[in-house]
Amino acid sequence: xxxxxxxxxxxxxxxxxxxxxxxxxxxxxxxxxxxxxxxxxxxxxxxxxxxxxxxxxxxxxxxxxxxxxxxxxxxxxxxxxxxxxxxxxxxxxxxxxxxxxxxxxxxxxxxxxxxxxxxxxxxxxxxxxxxxxxxxxxxxxxxxxxxxxxxxxxxxxxxxxxxxxxxxxxxxxxxxxxxxxxxxxxxxxxxxxxxxxxxxxxxxxxxxxxxxxxxxxxxxxxxxxxxxxxxxxxxxxxxxxxxxxxxx
Length: 248
Known about the structure:
Distance between the termini: 86 Å
Low-confidence stretches: 116-146, 223-231
Number of strands: 3
Radius of gyration: 24 Å
Structural class: mainly alpha
Largest sheet: 3 strands, antiparallel
Number of helices: 12
């Protein structure tokens, strides 16, 4: 595999700085993953085996969500040929040197490239994409805004700390992870010891949680049952009752 070039312009690139931490790690890994023409297999299992072979806790779903997010901001392109998904880097030839005469993968063409827009409708995967606007007076941006608002409402309802709603709404609009990924992370962290101790004192504000990409956090351990939820020690209770009866 030839060496790849990464220019220092990524430090000030709006697209690169719009990525989450994991999207950035995936993007950098894909630069060395693709062939000499900037193309590669887009199946998450193949990407995981090549780019993240030692990250056992990383799921195919997380890779697929990050890949979709990268496509949404235009850092990679996704396409299909004969039902198989592929990815490519736009403008690859302007940044890298092509040495091989032929690519290992089929060429992306206008008819097989997936259009993934950078908006809340596409980025939150389980929110339905509106194919046509039944109200001709209503603009597409208004429709997308309403759909995004519905996804935010689901997040807000699930998040246990209800502070800074407007700040959280603005942060949510910038997130490029599917809403299912966010909700699953919230539910897992709600059960953790870190979030349950001291009446939730260490739960971050929702905007902070979103801005820092905390749905990618690892190492949360399930909380022990509170004392009120523990099963009573029946043997100990019987002994205490017997001791009391002997004295009376």
